[in-house]
From TrEMBL:
Keywords: Disulfide bond, FAD, Flavoprotein, Glycoprotein, Membrane, Oxidoreductase, Redox-active center, Secreted, Signal, Transmembrane, Transmembrane helix. The chain crosses the membrane at residues 470-494. One of its GO terms (biological process) is protein folding. It comes from Carya illinoinensis (Pecan). It is an enzyme of class 1 (oxidoreductase). This is thiol oxidase.
Length: 506
């Protein structure tokens, strides 16, 4: 008990000091660690304050958000917390039963930093719960007599049962407090719902971050694979559908020699974060990613879909964003990345064989996008037979020839079935791919408008152009040489532009 009091006193002093206006994530972790050691409940709800409220809620992949305004000294709030946590465990965290649907969060109005925030939502008693789309909470508020507000007061959620029932009514769902992870045979299929691909932007961030974690874990960055990783990073900088992944890729690219030194796996470096160096601490798609769960690519079983689905979505999204002059570079960058960094040997070899069968360079982005689509269907056809024989497929999401008729009826010609094959209208297929993996995929991000940083993005566009200009190869040897020599110039350009620009006030 004395240790607990000592920590609490220390945290109180920190919160009153000029440099700390709220409990940090680290101090929250300390409190939770003490709580868990004493057999207390785990906190699933996300603690928010005035400094992170807009950024956390604005960036959540969840469709809805619940915000509890409370005071830590309030007895009713303390008694309500176990009820709120029972519901929060269903939706929050890497072990969430129903991830990516609802963000369960809380704000402590007893902290001075949150006074204005709580006033914006007209908090007059504790606890008060609000419901609405995350974007409406960002820079928003609530008033009792406000009409047509998408932020609603939850007026019947004082127990876990009543709160989950209220949520079920709003979402037309049947969530239960006893739901367990992946026991979800009622998981809705997204095959015939093109709007669902908009949620895959989060899976594209997830797969990008996870891929780099795998690369580091397996120590795959070697002298013979560095050029392949550089090429792929340049492709991500220019065409990744997530702005913050483009931003992170640019950071890695201009600091590549520092983040990935040639001797990063040498014995002298093994004590430095298991040889991962500074790259091991780098979050390429921003804080909180990877999240530990999938949304569009979530399977009905724990071991289906996920990473491989997310990687295909990323590759298709890149293929429909490139220009004609980048098509061959994108082809080699993707082929080399899969060949050098995909850990499934059989899948890697199959993809490499398809890459090797291409006899002439791609001259247009159209040809490359259609080749990648055809390659994906060949993979699906192979895996469908294997999974059917072994019984290892996902019954909710079986491998299929893409796109199905539900998504693109015009992609198949009237005489479609021919010797167990399909006669495709490739122009219609290209239109579908461009819309599905291009416009619709990023629509959710564009709607949120929460990642704006015009000053950085202006430079990022310049960097993307520069990276493409120096990276598009005239030959393999020239590409490697130019890419290796370009880092010093890019880094100097980055640093000089940052120094010459005045700080921008938020």
């Amino acid at each position: 008990m004395s240790q607990v009091l000592l920590v609490l006193n220390l945290l109180s002093l920190l919160s009153l000091s000029s440099g700390a206006t709220s409990l940090s994530l680290g101090s929250r972790s300390i409190l939770r660690a003490i709580d868990n050691e004493n057999g207390g409940p785990h906190d699933y709800a996300v603690d928010l304050n005035a400094s992170n409220f807009d950024s956390v809620i604005g960036d959540t992949p969840a469709t809805f958000a619940v915000v509890e305004f409370f005071a830590h000294w309030c007895p009713a709030c303390r008694n309500y917390k176990p009820h709120y946590e029972k519901v929060a465990r269903l939706f929050n965290g890497p072990d969430a039963v129903h991830p990516g649907i609802i963000l369960m969060s809380r704000v402590d109005c007893a902290l001075k930093i949150n006074t204005k925030l709580c006033d914006k939502f007209s908090v007059v008693h504790y606890p008060m719960l609000f419901w609405g789309p995350p974007a409406k909470f960002v820079a928003g508020g609530w008033e009792p007599k406000q009409e047509k507000s998408e932020i609603r007061l939850i007026d019947d959620g004082r127990t876990a049962d009543r709160l989950i029932n209220w949520i079920n009514k709003q979402t037309d769902s049947s969530f239960g407090l006893d739901d367990e992870k992946f026991e979800n045979e009622h998981l809705s299929s997204n095959v015939s719902d093109p709007v669902q691909i908009a949620r895959a932007v989060y899976d594209v961030e997830e797969v990008t971050s996870t891929a780099f974690e795998i690369i580091l874990e397996h120590k795959m960055i070697k002298s013979e694979t560095r050029a392949s990783l550089i090429k792929f990073l340049q492709l991500l900088v220019a065409h990744h559908p997530s702005r913050r992944c483009r931003r992170g890729s640019a950071d890695v690219l201009v600091n590549f020699d520092d983040l990935c030194p040639l001797d990063m796996w040498s014995p002298s470096k093994q004590g430095d974060n298991n040889g991962e160096g500074t790259l091991g601490n780098f979050q390429i798609c921003g804080k909180g990613v990877p999240r530990g769960y999938w949304m569009f690519c979530r399977g009905s079983k724990n071991d289906t879909r996920g990473f491989s689905c997310g990687l295909w979505v990323l590759l298709h999204s890149l293929s429909v964003r490139i220009e004609d002059g980048e098509s061959q570079f994108a082809f080699t960058a993707i082929c080399e990345f899969v060949h050098n960094f995909f850990v499934c040997e059989e899948c890697r070899q199959h993809f490499y064989d398809m890459c090797s069968s291409v006899s002439s360079p791609f001259k247009t982005s159209r040809d490359f996008a259609l080749w990648l689509w055809s390659a994906h269907n060949k993979v699906n056809e192979r895996l469908f037979k294997e999974e059917a024989f072994l019984g290892t497929g996902d019954p909710k999401f079986p491998k299929m020839i893409w796109p199905p008729k539900q998504l693109c009826s015009s992609c198949r010609l009237s005489q479609s079935e021919k010797n167990n094959g399909i006669d495709w209208d490739q122009e219609e297929v290209l239109k579908f791919l461009t819309n599905y993996y291009g416009k619709i995929l990023v629509s959710l991000r564009k709607d949120k408008k929460n990642l704006g940083n015009d000053r950085f993005d202006g430079f990022l566009e310049d960097l993307a152009v520069s990276a493409n200009a120096v990276a598009v190869p005239l030959g393999a040897a020239l590409a490697i040489a130019v890419a290796s020599c370009a880092f010093g110039a890019l880094a100097c350009c980055w640093r000089s532009q940052q120094k010459s620009r005045k700080p921008r006030r938020s």
